[in-house]
Amino acid sequence: MNGLDLRRLEYFVAVAEERHFGRAAERLRMTQPPLSRAVQQLEDELGVRLLIRTTRRVELTPAGEVLLRDARIALDAVAAAERRTRHAGAPSPTLRVALKADLDAGLLPGILAAFAEEPDACEVELVLVGIGEQAQTLRDGRADAAIVLAPYDAAGLDAEPLISEPTLLAMAASDPLAARNTLRPADLAGYVLPGGRPADQFPAKAGEPEAAGRARRRHTVADLTEILRLVEVGSMVCFLPLSVTRRYPRPEIAYRTVADVPDSEFSLAWPQQATSRAVAAFVRAAEKAATDQSRADSATAAAAVPSCASVTK
């Protein structure tokens, strides 16, 4: 064997993910007969059965499960190599930074200002992504650095912790629980988070799949504005960093502390194989911006505490 054909791997992944040849053919914009032949040729080439075909759906064999996992990695690596190569060969160098709008702890302006002072600075291109997609953009070559919020899948990445801040629960102001200032995780039994996870099981582990569990309703949402609207009407609750709650004060939403919920940890992540001097400069800029913001927050907190001389007895 001279190596697996990437096109056949792509076809196999589509069938394995759709669990149906017809839907996979539609996804690939091709007819079903050549797709079936290509997958059969792949099985013949490997000498193993990958799929169990029935009249209604397709199931993976143990060998098929293994190939699906590794084929995804291989196809992602090829796509990433192509993107990184094209980016490296561009006439004007740029640094692509992935982030979810409003999930930067307020650090982005300071990072960009500090980066502009670096000798290896270049133009920055912001890559706006959905919630939880930042790490994947680094692995697939769409971005060179990313501001990430824990937990996230750190496979293949290096990271520098930047800042932490309290995590608050967003819930409908009309909810009876909103009358309390502090809640316990057990109080959230029966409530659902975006994606369907039971709220009393927060936080999820990095890479752990969402589960509907005891969810009253299931919604697939990735936009913060949509999430907050669903929170307002009581369809779900949501955990948010303090900086986000300050940006979205709404009379219909109550932000409450939940005991034992960990702080929101923000980091700057980048691919482990990165050798760009611009990436290194951006990491330094992020560290400086985080330090400056932490000092400013500490000074603000100290100023809010009255001195002994100012206290009236």
Question: How does this model look, in words?
Answer:
Helix 1 (6-18) packs across helix 2 (21-28) and helix 1 packs across helix 4. The protein has helices spanning 6-18, 21-28, 32-46, 62-88, 108-116, 134-139, 224-232, 242-247, 277-304; strands at 51-53, 58-60, 94-99, 123-128, 145-149, 157-165, 167-172, 182-183, 238-241, 253-258, 264-271. The chain is 39% helix and 19% strand. The longest helix has 28 residues, at 277-304. Mean pLDDT is 87; it is low at 206-220 and 308-313. Strand 1 (51-53) and strand 2 form a beta hairpin. By secondary structure, the protein is an alpha/beta fold. The strands form three sheets. The protein has a five-stranded mixed beta sheet. Strands 8-10-7-9 form a four-stranded mixed beta sheet. It is built from nine helices and eleven strands. The relative contact order is 0.13.
Task: Describe this structure in a few short sentences.
The protein has nine helices and eleven strands.
Write the layout of secondary structure elements.
Layout: H1 6-18, H2 21-28, H3 32-46, E1 51-53, E2 58-60, H4 62-88, E3 94-99, H5 108-116, E4 123-128, H6 134-139, E5 145-149, E6 157-165, E7 167-172, E8 182-183, H7 224-232, E9 238-241, H8 242-247, E10 253-258, E11 264-271, H9 277-304
Parallel strand pairs: 3-4, 3-5, 8-10
Antiparallel strand pairs: 1-2, 5-11, 6-11, 7-9, 7-10
Helix pairs in contact: 1-2, 1-3, 1-4, 5-9
Average the pLDDT over all residues and give the rounded result: 87
Number of strands: 11
* Low-confidence blocks of residues: 206-220, 308-313
Order of helices and strands: HHHEEHEHEHEEEEHEHEEH
Given the structure, what is the number of helices?
A: 9
Query: Based on helices, strands and strand pairing, what is the structural class?
Result: alpha/beta
Question: Which strand order spans the largest sheet, edge to edge or round the barrel?
Answer: 4-3-5-11-6
Largest sheet, in brief, is: 5 strands, mixed
